[in-house]
# Entry
Amino acid sequence: MDLQEILNIIRSFPCSWIVWTGGEPTLQLSSEIVSFFKKEGYFQAIESNGTRKLPTGLDYISISPKGNYSSLISINPQVDEIRLPVKAGQAIPDIADFPSAKNYFLSPIFSSEETETHENIEYCVQFIRQHPQWRLSLQIHKLIGIE
# Structure
C-alpha cells in the first residue's frame, strides 16, 4: 500500500494519533512517512527498542531498550519515555543513565509460569517503592488473559 491508501483507510476511524510500533518500527518508518502524516494532522508516537536512529518529526518517543543502555541513549538522546522490561533479580540502571527522558517505567516480564510473572511484578514494585521516580507499567492484556 502507498501512503495515500493507508491514509484513506485510517481516516475512516475517529482518531488523531498514530502509534508506530513493531516488531521494530524503525526498520520501515522514515522521516518522509512521519512528515506525510504530520501534514495530515496526526500526532505520532513511536515505541522502539532504541537500537536505530529514529525518524525526525515524531511527537512522542518511547524507548524500551534491552540492555547496553548508555550506548542506546547516545543513538537517540532525546526521548520522552524509557520503558524497561524487567525480570526479578535483574540490575536496573540509574535514572541518571537516561538524562533526557521525562517518564521512567519498569515493565515486569510476563512468563508462561505464573509464579515467575508474580516474582517479576513484585520485584518491580519493591524497586519502585525504593526509587519512586520509576513507575510501573503492566501489560494488562496479559494479566487478564488476552493474547
In short: Residues 3-143 form a domain with the TIM Barrel fold (CATH 3.20.20.70). The first strand starts at residue 17 and ends at 20. The helical segments are 3-10, 31-39, 69-75, 114-130, 140-143. The radius of gyration is 17 Å.
